[in-house]
Amino acid sequence: MAITAKDVMELRKQTDCGMMECKKALTEADGNFEKAVEILRERGLATAAKKASRTAAEGMVYAEYCPQCKVGVVIEVNAETDFVAKNDKFVAFVKEATQVIMKQNPADVEALMACKTESGETVDEALKNLILVIKENIKVRRFVRYEGVCSAYVHGGGTHGILVNFETTNDIDAKDEFVAYGKDIAMQVAAANPSYVDEASVPAEVVAKEKEIMLAQMAGDPKNANKPEAVKQKMIEGKIKKFFKENCLVDQEFVKDGDLSVAQYTAKVAKDLGGDIKIVKFTRFQKGEGLEKRADDFAAEVASMVK
């Protein structure tokens, strides 16, 4: 029996499974919808699809850098509970997905799902199989891939993942001292949470908005409201410098030595190693940031299951 696109779409609507899985099931069932649904359920795919509607805001963030191929990746994979982050199969999947991103350079998460793993299955198939084992909704949320010299750092067993990209000269990136420096910078990003690399990377509209807020604050402060405009502008210049110091990575105080800025620490390391170092960009992922987490009472949930 010929399987039409309309048949596939209808089965997908009923089961929420992927197009290819639906087409395979219909083909095996010779177009019988009930049999196709049964096949999908037997394979656990329909169950996995049902779990896809459940909130996944836990899981882990992971970062890795390959010095030989000079490619770094940071990825976030979410699950429903924080127990999953300690599951060996879950961790193995995250690391395998990281390797796929590193080697195949998919454009986005959707493209990643179609990439093949070393075992020959797609990442999407590996994910569905993992859902069957762990019995939780699991989603690859996002990733970033940098080419060039990088430093990768994972904090708190996967609560934060940081990837920093550098430009260097004289092959200093191969030295142990540079590796230690790179980790320091990644840890700085984790701890101080900068928004920008330097002043030049702060958008003009952001600076303008900050100045607007500062002027409004002065207008509402009796001590400053009646001061001359020139004095107010001078005060704003000082406040903007403070804004840069707090929000720009290279202007921040170095967390391991408050007497140095990150820029000064970078210059010192570069001089000691006989080369140049420039921090180009960075990505900081925090597990579950921006996601609505489950507010379930775990004890109540267990109690309800016992009843």
From TrEMBL:
InterPro entries: EF-Ts_dimer_sf, Transl_elong_EFTs/EF1B, Transl_elong_EFTs/EF1B_dimer, Transl_elong_Ts_CS, UBA-like_sf
Any one Gene Ontology cellular component term annotated for this protein: cytoplasm
Subcellular location: Cytoplasm
Superkingdom of origin organism: Bacteria
Protein family according to the UniProt entry: Belongs to the EF-Ts family.
Function: Associates with the EF-Tu.GDP complex and induces the exchange of GDP to GTP. It remains bound to the aminoacyl-tRNA.EF-Tu.GTP complex up to the GTP hydrolysis stage on the ribosome.
Name of the protein this chain belongs to: Elongation factor Ts
Organism, as annotated: Faecalibacterium hattorii
Organism lineage string: Bacteria, Bacillati, Bacillota, Clostridia, Eubacteriales
